Structure prediction request, 141 residues.
Amino acid sequence: MSDEFEPRIIAFCCQYCSYSAADMAGSMRLQYPTNVEIVLIPCTGRFDVILALKAFESGADGVYVAGCLEGNCHFVDGNIRAKKRVAYLANELKKIGIEPERIAMYNLSASMGPRFAEIVTEFTDNIKALGPSPVKKKLAA
Ligand code: FES
Prediction:
């Protein structure tokens, strides 16, 4: 068994493009880290800061939101609103001493299975480099 830090990552994926991309990555049998737990949401416009804070509180080391490509949201501008919320939260995390890189936003089309796998790998590597979430450490103390 390895002692390497294995982060817990929560990904809020919209049911249209990004979840379909995740499905495609699975169908293509692409290899990617198993650290990500996907939470299916109808649209990233449904994502709000409270959901991310709850994820951190429940032990996530990193959180990302994955929606449709800009201009392709099935609810017009849900992904644009999510992008603003993610940017807002990154800034707020920074103010309280939590690395803003622990939250991110990605955009995918349904056919981007390989990109989905890349994102999981890239984000997992980024969070591994940061180490465990300070929130988790504080709650354990
Ligand atoms: Fe995918 Fe809105 S439906 S981001």
Observations:
- The mean pLDDT is 94.
- The chain is about 45% helix and 20% strand.
